[in-house]
Automatic annotation (TrEMBL), chain A:
Organism phylogeny: Eukaryota, Fungi, Dikarya, Ascomycota, Saccharomycotina
Source taxon at top rank: Eukaryota
Protein name per Swiss-Prot or TrEMBL: Unnamed protein product
From TrEMBL, chain B:
Record's GO cellular component terms: cytoplasm; nucleus; proteasome core complex, alpha-subunit complex
Acidic residues composition-biased segments: 257-272
A Pfam family of this chain: Proteasome_A_N
Name this polypeptide is given: Unnamed protein product
Organism: Ambrosiozyma monospora
Species lineage: Eukaryota, Fungi, Dikarya, Ascomycota, Saccharomycotina
Automatic annotation (TrEMBL), chain C:
SUPFAM superfamilies referenced in this protein's UniProt entry, alphabetically: N-terminal nucleophile aminohydrolases (Ntn hydrolases)
Assembly and interaction partners: The 26S proteasome consists of a 20S proteasome core and two 19S regulatory subunits. The 20S proteasome core is composed of 28 subunits that are arranged in four stacked rings, resulting in a barrel-shaped structure. The two end rings are each formed by seven alpha subunits, and the two central rings are each formed by seven beta subunits. The catalytic chamber with the active sites is on the inside of the barrel.
UniProt function note: Component of the proteasome, a multicatalytic proteinase complex which is characterized by its ability to cleave peptides with Arg, Phe, Tyr, Leu, and Glu adjacent to the leaving group at neutral or slightly basic pH. The proteasome has an ATP-dependent proteolytic activity.
Keyword terms: Cytoplasm, Nucleus, Proteasome
Gene Ontology CC, one term: nucleus
Compartment(s) of residence: Cytoplasm; Nucleus
InterPro entries, alphabetized: Ntn_hydrolases_N, Proteasome_bsu_CS, Proteasome_sua/b, Proteasome_suB-type
Originating species: Ambrosiozyma monospora
Protein name: Proteasome subunit beta
Family: Belongs to the peptidase T1B family.
Domain of life: Eukaryota
Gene Ontology process terms (BP): proteasomal ubiquitin-independent protein catabolic process; proteasome-mediated ubiquitin-dependent protein catabolic process
Length: 281, 303, 246
């Protein structure tokens, strides 16, 4: 068989009309504008997110970090997917939680995957070297560079990310970066709706690094679970199924919990529900 | 000789560029480049469990001239010692500095020593496989500390890099290599000071008959996890020179040390020697153009 | 009834939907991350202070995100405004400084650093770093010096300067307390201006703390913590004071 598509021929013009050249130059630009003049419209970049993921939550506790994100992929107000994994593992012990555009999430996933592969070339079979190599602070710096450079090209990756892991010294590392390349650290972090709904609840318990020392692992997990519940109550684009990663400093390990369900929900009349559904202190 | 009225000029057909193999499987231009590193004054590197030390012998072109810089800092955790063409070393070290800085900028972490050497190895290798260029005429000892500990690598113009516990490059470096081979088992547990002393003794063995180590011609550089890469020159090296029993090598002292390599030429110069032999045979005794345009004088190098 | 409506022009929102021009839904590459900074020069010292609150709109992103940096060669640098650009500018400066050391093997003078920053800023004249920048250090005579920059690199050396969200609240206070504007010599019975003098470090620290506690009261983007970096010939020291977290 001749494998050159140009030699395959095409339906005759007499039957189907001449080939519409515009098909080959298809774009997502307003068709009216395309007809006017194709070349004078700027190159399209992500100008608004399409398929999206909602909040990511994270909190530091006395021996590490708990980070969580639900499994929903929304297409506007349509719940399109209920099995999206938005907590990415990078290297040995870094978790990157991503909200915002899901295609850009996948772009980030590929970039970080390449980074991981690159790293493994150097380390070879040496497990220790691999573990020592790519730490959370390096991943965060790299991600910040990518986000800032893309925004500077006016072609942003439409996401807000939370990087959780351990730094070179094995200390807990928790830092945020978003589509503008804005980065900051805080013992409690949340993206999207979580910044409005969960942050006040998280800060009630942990408002400074000093408070981190007082929060136990069990309490931190419960706190994140409660916040995920409140988000499921109040954020229309959220799901009651989520992933949660628990990092502990003492053994430098990451526990990854998939398909965690929101529990003990109360759907009675609002009269009896106080504090946005957060268990009262 | 009598029979020929025409001088037969031998020409090596396989050394015009660095991209042609000889029928015996050698790339002459690359070997000549390696030869250039042997013309430069010696540099020695040693590693312990905690420290990496570089020592090097600086030459001055003439009495009134300044001494050649032998050690170049790349980053707080990384540095190189060179032997051969100093301008080539500058190009390579500038490249390394860029790599080190971009690692800091992009990943917020220091460049690992292996990544550093392989980055210049790749550059050097390109020159051995693409037409129009020449190989780098410089050998480097790359010393640094990263998350996996202290490391010492030797870089050669061929693009090959190997990690060492002790290494020496440059003129008469075989002598110091002999010393290193005898002592290397002590290196891992040696203290910083001991390591420097070993290095200086090794360097001393590369000296010419009438030369001595002094604060003008000796460079010492140290790096460890807790100590930024630091270069010691001039009055700052005197502290270690004072500790040595002698500043001249054993040959100059007239001691018959059977372990020492008294051969002024490098032993691993076999290739060149073999080459010279071929030349002699082919030219049947007449004084011809030699195959090897050896650098006329070491003074021309490292300017 | 129906006929009337059919003939009349339908006044519906849908009528606007037919467009001949593409809607330009542009991505805005800038944001304001709040916070305020303040630099004051003394006779043999300079201070550069900033609050540690990091904001986006009404959200407090972090209560402790330092923005004043000791960048080496006895200099302090802070860029306030859009945090992405601010971070990039400080990093870029750090890189240039390192190359300067490789190339020249000596300290970079504060005046030269100021000129360098001008070029970094002006280099992005048509896509500016959205920041107000302040550089603090000592000059060649060992006197404290403050340089302040607009987003595109216009700069001048000053005795003091406030930048960022609460600059307009702090600057008049500084005019009065550092440059003695509108102050008269009490002896002269309102005929002679109060003579300029260098303030001591203690006086300056007190001024800085007062400036920030006041700005915290009046500006929502200022608060949480105050970090003051002090540069003298002996190096850089850092002080931290809590501010109101509301």
């Amino acid at each position: 068989m001749n494998h050159n598509p140009f030699h395959w021929g095409r339906p005759s013009d007499s039957t189907y009309g001449p080939y519409n050249q515009q098909i080959a130059h298809a774009s997502n630009v307003n068709p009216m504008a395309r007809q006017q003049q194709q070349s004078d419209f700027p190159t399209m970049h992500t100008q608004r997110p399409m398929m999206t993921g909602t909040s990511v939550l994270a909190i530091k506790y006395q021996d590490g970090i708990v980070i969580a994100a639900d499994n929903m992929g929304s297409y506007g107000s349509l719940m399109k997917l209920d099995n999206v994994e938005r907590l990415l593992k990078v290297g040995q012990d870094t978790i990157v939680g991503i909200s915002g555009d899901l295609s850009d999430l996948q772009a980030i996933q590929r970039i970080l995957n390449d980074l991981e592969i690159d790293e493994s070339y150097d380390a070879g079979d040496d497990e220790d070297a691999l573990a020592a190599g790519l730490k959370a602070n390096h991943v965060h710096e790299y991600l910040t560079r990518i986000m800032y450079n893309r925004r500077s090209k006016m072609d942003p990756l439409w996401n807000a990310c939370i990087v959780a892991g351990f730094d070179d010294e094995g200390k807990s590392f928790l830092k945020y970066v978003d589509l503008l390349g804005v980065a900051f650290a805080s013992p409690t972090l949340a993206t999207g709706f979580g910044a409005h709904l969960a942050i006040p609840l998280l800060r009630q318990r942990v408002d400074s690094e000093a408070d981190v020392k007082k929060l136990t692992k069990a309490d931190a997990i419960q706190l994140i679970k409660d916040c995920m519940k409140v988000l499921f109550y109040r954020d229309a684009r959220s799901l009651d199924k989520y992933s949660m990663a628990v990092l502990s400093e003492s053994d430098q390990k990451v526990e990854f919990h998939k398909d965690v369900k929101v529990e003990d929900m109360k759907w009675a009349f609002a009269k009896g529900i106080k504090g946005y559904g957060m268990p009262q202190l | 000789m009598v029979c020929f009225n025409r001088v037969i000029t031998f020409r090596n057909n396989y050394d015009n560029d660095a991209t042609t193999f000889s029928p015996t499987g050698r790339i002459f231009q690359v070997e000549y480049a390696a030869e250039a590193t042997k013309q430069g004054s010696a540099a020695v590197g040693l590693v312990s469990k905690t420290h990496v030390v570089l020592v090097a012998l600086k030459r001055n072109a003439e009495e009134l001239g300044s001494y050649q810089k032998k050690v170049i800092m790349i980053d707080d955790h990384l540095g190189v010692a060179l032997a051969g063409l100093a301008p080539d070393a500058r190009v390579l070290s500038n490249y390394l500095r860029q790599q080190a800085m971009s690692s800091k900028m992009v990943f917020n972490r220091p460049l690992s020593v292996s990544r550093a050497v392989y980055s210049i190895a790749d550059k050097a290798q390109e020159n051995t496989q693409s037409a129009g260029g020449r190989p780098y005429g410089v050998g480097l000892l790359v010393a640094g500390v990263d998350v996996t500990g202290p490391h010492l690598y030797e870089f050669q113009p061929s693009g090959s890099v190997l990690e060492y516990v002790g290494a020496a490059i440059g003129a008469r470096s075989q002598a110091s290599r002999t010393f290193l081979e005898r002592k290397f088992e002590d290196f891992p547990n040696a203290t910083r000071e001991q390591l420097i002393e070993y290095g200086l003794i090794a360097l001393r063995d590369t000296l010419a008959q009438d030369k001595e180590l002094n604060s003008k011609n000796t460079t010492v550089a140290v790096v460890s996890k807790n100590e930024k890469f630091t270069i010691y020159d001039d009055e700052n090296v005197q502290q270690w020179l004072d500790k040595l029993d002698s500043l001249a090598n054993s040959r100059s002292r007239g001691r018959q040390d059977d372990d020492d390599d008294d051969d002024e030429d490098d032993d691993d110069d076999e290739a060149a020697a073999e080459q010279a032999e071929t030349t002699a045979t082919a030219t049947s005794g007449d004084a011809p153009t030699t195959t090897q345009d050896r650098a006329p004088d070491a003074m021309d190098l490292e300017e | 009834m129906m006929n009337v409506q059919q003939n009349a022009t339908m006044a519906s929102e849908y009528s606007n939907e037919v467009q001949t021009q593409p809607i330009e839904h542009r991505f805005n590459p800038y944001t304001d991350n709040g916070g305020t900074i303040l630099g004051i020069a003394g006779e043999d010292f300079a201070v550069l202070a900033g609050d540690t609150r990091h904001t986006s709109g009404y959200n407090i992103n972090s209560r402790y995100e330092p923005k004043v940096f000791s960048v080496g060669d006895n200099m302090l640098l802070s860029a306030n405004g859009f945090a992405g650009d601010a971070q990039q500018l400080v990093k870029e400066f750090g890189r240039e400084l390192k190359w300067y050391h490789f190339d020249h093997n000596r300290k970079l003078a504060t005046s030269s650093a100021a000129r360098l920053i001008q070029h970094l800023l002006y280099g992005k004249r048509f896509f500016p770093y959205y920041v107000h920048t302040i550089l603090a250090g000592l000059d060649a005579d060992g006197k404290g010096s403050i340089y302040s920059f607009d987003p595109v690199g216009s700069y001048e050396r000053e005795q003091c300067r406030a930048g960022g969200a609460a600059a307009s609240l702090i600057m008049p206070f500084l005019d009065n307390q550092v440059n003695f504007k509108n102050q008269m010599d009490p002896e002269s019975n309102g005929t002679k201006k109060k003579e300029l003098r260098y303030l001591s470090l203690e006086e300056v620290l007190q001024l800085v703390r007062d400036a920030f506690t006041s700005a915290t009261e009046r500006h929502i983007e200022v608060g949480d913590g105050l970090e003051i970096l002090i540069v003298t010939k002996d190096g850089v020291t850092t002080k931290y004071y809590p501010l109101k977290r509301d």
